[in-house]
Amino acid sequence: MSEIRDWLEGLRSLGMRPGLEVTAAFLSRLGMPQMKFPCIHVAGSNGKGSLSVILANSLTLSGISCGLFTSPHLCFVEERVRIDGVPISSEKFDQLLIEIRKVAEQEPTIMPTYYEATFLVAMLAFAEAGVDRAVIETGLGGRLDATRLCQADYCVLTELSLEHTEILGDTLGEIAAEKAAIARPSGTFIAKWTYDASARKAIEETVVSPSNAYWWRFDRDTIVRFDKATESHRPVPKFDGYDRLNSYQKDAMNLAEVVLAFFWPTGDNTIDAFRMVKSAVMHTVWPGRMQWLEHEGVPLLLDAAHNPSGMEKVCEQLRAQMENNIHPTPGVIILGSTPQTNLIAFLHPLIELIVAGEVEHVIVTEPQKGRRVAIPTNEIAAELGAQGVPAKVEQIADPEKALERALELAKGDPTQPVLAFGSLYLAGNLLQAMGLDDVESMTVLRPSPEKQYWT
User: Fold this and answer.
1) pLDDT in tens, 77-113
2) Could you tell me the CATH number of the domain that includes residue 380?
3) Which residues form the domain of 204?
4) What is the structure's pLDDT at 148?
């Protein structure tokens, strides 16, 4: 590892540092690179990464050069900083990191956290490349997240759930207020409708300009301005079969259409938001998010369902796909997670999938290289046992060895698929184990629509 990468790794010891002061000081010393391009800023508990990548790819395909900042990374840190779908080179990352370290050593000295340093690299990289626009995903929360210093004219809030309660608050209303604080006074704000009244109230009270803020009523396929939110709406449409699903991919696609309809007004006939988003989805590969692969002849699904609502969504989608013969019944499940606020709520949707799919084998493992230490395998195995899971549960702490065992079990007659859930870090561990940790594998905009993340 190079000296500058050692310096970056050393920043991990600073942990998380909510607040904007240090990042603002760095941006000032670096010449305010974030002022050289406008941004779409995305926050939320679930689906914000999927929305961000579809928005970025839609813009790129329309001829708008676009930077994309996301976190955390799966396999290598350069994934966090993409331009037109491609991670920047390690050489460019190091060059910009050296520039950041130089200004850190100026008097008075200041030191960024690991996350702040990667965000600063993104701002420098996008400015240097001359991108037309960037899509920026928040890391944690919104109000005190370093990304709030980007110059956003569009801000989007995806689905909310109880997460990181020790930092963001104990209620959905408190979490909503933290995340909605990304709204800019002069920009357009769009939020996915929530049925939680306290969360809606918190969002509406947080947004400064309600006349330029909108709810996306996904259940009624309509947009309503905050200051008209009490007006009546058309009846809720009825769906059946697969169409009733509200998966993160479908959410992201629909919400991207809403955002880009504002970006490209109806009167502008040169761009059609629906067609552009559809094209972007067909060319998008979002590693570790409902990603179907084949390894050693075995179908394998990776998904970073990392909280109860995320697990519920992915399991609901898989059950519907099984019922409609869109994908085969899961044969082996690999499960590993970082700490959960409510482990039982997190596991329940998966337990229902195990029962419905008559899954015979579950392998519990421990994701590596994450910001937080994984839940020990014996804790998850004990909870699965307490809930009466009928499958055989094995504990293999090493994700690579867990994958080897899952493949061994899956290679029967017929071959069964392997499903891996529970953490973005676990997805990264398994991608590395399969040798899919190179730049090509982490490029999210592909020239051919043959390999899609949309399934």
Assistant:
1) 999 999 999 999 999 999 999 999 999 999 999 999 9
2) 3.90.190.20
3) 3-282
4) 96
